[in-house]
Amino acid sequence: MLIADDVGEPVQTIALHSLEAQTSCALLILEWSIESAMSDEDVASGIAYRPHEDGSLVTLWGEVDAALRTEASEAMTFLVGRHGPVVIDVERVSFIDSAGIAFVLQVYMIGREAGQPVTLRNPTREFEDMLAIIGMDGEIEITRGVTAA
């Protein structure tokens, strides 16, 4: 996991081998955050999270990039320690960079370690192409045709 300072500059890379270490790191990242999260889907871009059915729903929309690191950190903190499947709705993502892909992969890896299924809902062809480029096509389950509730 790459740790960044408050302006997004990388300062340290660490390997997190346990859920406990990931939880501690996620809480530390949240404490470092100096901006408040914006989970109002009326803004141009964002990350929202909430309990959903027997698990969790994470919704990404707009331009998902490093500018959303605070929202990503808070979503990770919300997810760590929760039980049940995780759905990541990416239907309204218009752009995603390496920081956004890294967030999706972190959610997937934490879910896999905890034995929780992680599903990507309604990704665009471009989103799927990004997963293929990094060798993750076929790794994360994809569902189509279901809209966010």
Automatic annotation (TrEMBL):
InterPro entries: MlaB-like_STAS, STAS_dom, STAS_dom_sf. Residues 45-149 form the STAS domain. PROSITE patterns: STAS. Pfam families: STAS_2. This is Anti-anti-sigma factor. It comes from Paraoerskovia marina.
